[in-house]
Amino acid sequence: MHIATTLGLLLTASLLAGLASEILRLPKVTAYLIAGLLLGPSFGNLIPHEHHLVLEPLTKLAMALVLFYLGTLFPFDQIRKIARRAIPLSFGELAFTVVLVTVGTYLLGMSAAQAALLGTLAIATAPATTMFVLRETNAEGPVTSLTGTLVTLNNLVAVIAFELVWLAIEVAGGDASGSLSETVFLLVRSLGGAFLLGLLGGLVISYACEIMHTRRWLVLLVGASALMLGLSETWELPYMLVFLVVGLVVVNSSSGTQKITAQMDSIGGLLTVVFFSVHGSELDLNLLLDVGMIGAGYVVLRSVGKVAGIWFMASRTGASPEVKTWLGPAMLAQAGVAISLAATATARNPEMAGQVQTIILGTVVVFEILGPLLTRAAVLRSGEMPIANSIHHTFGTPLGALRNVFTRLAGSAGLLNKKQALSERMRVEQVMRRSVEGIAESADFNEVVHFVEHSHDNTFPVLNEDRCVVGLIRFDLLNQAFFDPHSDHLVRAGDLSTPPEVLLHPAQPVRDAVELFRQTTDDCVPVVTDEPPHRLVATVRRSDLTSLLIRDRKAGLS
């Protein structure tokens, strides 16, 4: 079979699986993986093994772009804030996971070296899977942002820890080639080379984007990424670390980071489908049976370690109940990074690492199918994903599609009141975002600016000590304050706010929110409790409501 046929089969199966995921309300990641699984050795066996080798550069490029994006989440001016919130949680997760997996698998019969290697690989969280689910759900809030941060830290630590653990295994077993100093030199060369290549690549991309028109950015980004990926493979550098550093450099040296990531999104969608469908076609359910009790123990120990580690540290750092409960389940997906590191270990020492690779490949089936479901459930249950995003879809059953045709026909003939159909089906609580923060009424101007800088809105609720909305800050008043040299010391959030003209309640019909947005230019409206005192519980965004109306219109139900 020609490679083009393989690619066509994978993309067609992924397209059908994506449509089916609308009916079954599954994350598209899971659907793409299942599509590949059906074409792979476990079922159809339609994909020749050699084609996986041909498609490997595309899947690695997709992974590289995801890691690039993760690196852009760490601007230097935010690292202190990120570190204060994320590092304790990450430390708890990593410590619990490594200890439980290492000790547990050793007691189940693995050698000390194999158990240590499994404990290190258990750290890694699938970046592509996790980030794709978060972006698909359009989630925002503490759980979402911490998930992205911890995924980055996990994989950064996993790459470095793998090299250190491997060095320790070789030294302990007397297998280190050459002297210890030579082995350490090779380790420093690998990690230092990855850092320097990422630094140079990031600076080149930032500089080139300054002098090139945006129309050429996509070619620049793909070309530079492919070149760095090729150099990493040629020089045997950990490409995952390279691209994390590239993203970190770009976000701190370029003024157009958002435009750069938007350019990557234009090709990232196709590469994502290829990545997950190819990855799914490599999964082999027979391996799940081969790993037996040790594999089952690895799944349980890794899951408990991540969930319990985050819960333990969140309880001691005063994190919100949502973070304590749902951040752990959002971190369970595992695939590319762990597979890549396991393959590296096997290439270095097949006798010792072969069984470790089998366990990783076998358990990936579980983590890649259940991981996206748990990540999606985590952001939904924590209130960072509007409920409408999970219950409203553009694709339905064949009978539903036929009904939509006649509904549109009746609407065009004036026989159907479209607004009434929408208002009877949806309430504000189904489109609001529950995970929301406001600005304290006593906050000074610098605190207001910091809040605004990291918000996606242009309207900001001001809260008193009881979390009641006492006003709204809009950009027009904020712009005026920027030109006042005394603002930093004299102005408080309460001085910049205007009384809220309208507020929404969770039980109100969506048509009230629609009418409200027609009368205001604000991009979000606070949602408060029904009973006094009317405390802030959520916001409704114009963009979320617009997306809902567009989807309703396409489905013929609005």
Automatic annotation (TrEMBL):
Q: Which domain of life is it from?
A: Bacteria
Tell me the organism: Rhodopirellula islandica
Membrane topology recorded in Swiss-Prot or TrEMBL: Multi-pass membrane protein
User: Which GO molecular-function terms appear in the entry?
Assistant: antiporter activity
Q: Where in the cell is it found?
A: Membrane
User: Any keyword Transmembrane helix?
Assistant: yes
What residue ranges carry the coiled-coil annotation? Answer: none
Which residues does the UniProt record annotate as the domain CBS? 497-555
Transmembrane portions of the chain:
58-76, 88-109, 115-134, 146-169, 184-205, 217-232, 295-314, 326-347, 359-379
Q: What is this protein called?
A: Sodium/hydrogen exchanger
